[in-house]
Design goal:
Length: 104
């Protein structure tokens, strides 16, 4: 076992230079993968989140919305972070603004 470690330590500098070249190419490839993931996955998700937040800020009385639970209704009152949706003639439900999925 000691002989194996001695052989590894006694390797020529040429063997080490070849390893550093492959290390650099591996780091470049790793960086390219991270950039691709950013532009294909992270950036579009951030854009959708900003659009959804803008939609939530622009909601007003009378808007027809769909909740994350799939309930369709019309906004009758907005109170801070919650709102009241009318889902039927005599049925009103209170929801948090964050539970609104889309505007019709």
């Amino acid at each position: 076992m000691f002989n194996t470690f001695a052989n590894i330590l006694a390797m020529s500098p040429q063997g080490q230079q070849g390893g550093s070249g492959s290390l650099i190419s591996m780091l470049v490839m790793f960086g390219a993968v991270i950039l691709i993931m950013y532009f294909l996955m992270i950036r579009p998700q951030q854009k959708r989140q900003k659009e959804h937040q803008k939609m939530l800020e622009n909601l007003k009385k009378g808007d027809k919305v769909i909740t994350t639970a799939g309930i369709h209704g019309t906004i009758t009152d907005i109170d801070g972070s919650s709102m009241i949706l009318q889902v039927s003639d005599n049925v009103k439900i209170t929801f948090e603004k964050s539970s609104i999925a889309a505007k019709k």
